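Board notes, transcribed. Complex of a protein with 5'-O-[(L-methionyl)-sulphamoyl]adenosine.
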Amino acid sequence: MARKFYITTAIDYPNDRPHVGTAYEKIAADVIARHRRMRGDDVLFLMGNDEHSQKVVRAARDRDLEPLEWCDRLAACFREAWAALDVVPDDFIRTTEPRHRLAVERILTACRDRGDLYEAEYEGLYCAGCEAFKREDDLAEGRCPDHPTRELERLRERNWFFRLTRYSDALRRHFAAEPGFVRPETRRNELLALLDLGLQDISVTRPATGWGIPVPFDPRSVVYVWFDALVNYLSGAGWPSDPERFERYWPADLHVVGKDITRFHAILWPAMLLSAGLELPKCVFGHGWVTVRDARMSKSEGNVLDPVALAVRFGPDAIRYYLMSEAVFGRDLEFDTGRIVARANADLANGLGNLLSRTVSMVAKYRDGRLPAPKGASAVREAVGTAAAAWTEALETWDLQGGIAAANTVVARANTLVEERAPWALAKDPSRSDLLDATLYDLAEATRLSLLMLHPYMPRRTAEATARLGLDPAAALGTDHLDWGALRPGTSLAQGPPLFPRIEESPAP
Ligand code: MSP
C-alpha cells in the first residue's frame, strides 16, 4: 500500500499579493510534495490563506471593500500566482470557509472542556505584523525585531487564555523523544532555549469587532488569529467534517514554515493538539528568509518582488531552480536577480540543456535518431548510481540544495564523457562503432536520470525533455525508474528547440 504523506505550508495573510519570500516556501514544499508523488506516496499537499487577520481588514478598508470581498479577490490572485510558479497543492484552504470554522469551534470547546481555558484581563504590547503580544525581552530597542518599521500597540483586553504553561513538561519530553520534531537543528536549539526560558499562558481570543470566528461559548469574543490559523492543518485534512480523510492523512508529516513562525508551530500548536487529545505532527521545518541587503523581504520593509513577473521573464523553472539551489534549505537566501541569470546560463543552458541537445543531435546524426543498444560496460553507470542514492537521501532529509547538487554531478559527468570520448571522432572510425554506441547510450541514460532527479524542481522543462527521449513523462518520472537502463535501445529521440535558451538580457532588477 502506498505510504501517505501529508505536507503543509504556512497559510498566507492576504493583505497583499504574494512576493518572492512567501513564494520561496511554497516552491520548497511543492518540490518535496512532487518528490513524494514520484515515489508513489499518497500525498496531501495543503496550502491556503489566513484571512482573519487585522492586516487583512485594513487592506480591505483602504480599498473600500468588505473584508470577505477583498479575501475572495486575493484568494484568486494567490491561486493564479501559485499556478504560474507550477506550485500545485492538492487543496487550498481559506479560514473563512465553514469547514474551517467548524474545526476551530470544535478545538476551542475541546480545550475548554479539558480545563485549559480561563478568562483574564491582559495588558501588553501587540505587534500587528506578527499578530502577537510581545514580551519586554522579545523587543529590540522597544520594537519587534521582525517588524522594526511598525509601531507596537499597547492593548488592554479581557480575553480567554490557554494554559500553555501546563504543557511545558510534555513539550520538553516530546522534543527529547523526537529529535526530528523540529528541523533544522539550529531551529530546534532556538526552541529548546525558549522552553528553558519558561512559557507563559497565551491569550487566544480578542474582543469581537465583526471579523473573525466567534467564540462559541462567548459571543463577545472572536478567536485569536493564530489559534484560528493553526487549525487549518486539521480542517484541511478533514477534521471534523470528513473523518475518513482525516484518518487517512493525520498526523501531518511535515509543516514547512518560516523561521519567524516556527515557535507557534512547535510550541503552541502541539500544546493545542495535546489539549484536544489529537496526535502531534511528525516534523516542523523552519526555513530561512529570502532577504534583500540582509533584511527580510516583506511588504512592511517595502522591498518585495513579484514572483509572477519573474516567472514571466525567466520561466518558472529557472526561478524555482535558483531559489532551491542558491542556499541551504533552512538558511537565509540573499536575493539577486543576476544570480538567476548566472545559474540559468551555467547550470541549465550550458549544463543540462546542452547535454540533452548534444545527446539527441548525435543520436540523430550518427544513428538516424534511434538509440543504439550499448555493447560493453558503461563508463558512468556507477557514478550515476551513487548520485541517485545521494539524491534520494537528500530529498528524504529535506536537503533540497543537496538534491540539485546530486543531479548536477550526473550532468557534469556526462558532459565530461562527451569531451573524453569525442563521439565525432569515433563516428569516423567503423572499428570503434561499439564504443560510439556505448557512449551514446550512456549519454542518453545520464540525461534521462538527471531529468528525473531535477523533475521535482523544474517540473515543466524536465517533463518536456523526457518526452523528447521517447518516454511518457507521466509514467517515466517515478522513483521506480531511478535504476540504470530504463531507456530501450531502438527508441526514437526527438530533436527540438533549446530546452533552456541562454538568457542574454542584463540582470537589472
Ligand atoms: N498567516 C501566518 C501563518 C499562519 S500558519 C498557521 C503568516 N503569514 S505570512 O503571510 O506573514 O507568511 C507566510 C509564510 O511566508 C510564513 O511561513 C513566513 O515565514 C513566510 N515568509 C514571509 N516572508 C518571507 C521571506 N522573506 N522569506 C521566506 N519566507 C517568508 O505568517
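The chain has a mean pLDDT of 96. The CA atoms of residues 82 and 448 lie 27 Å apart.
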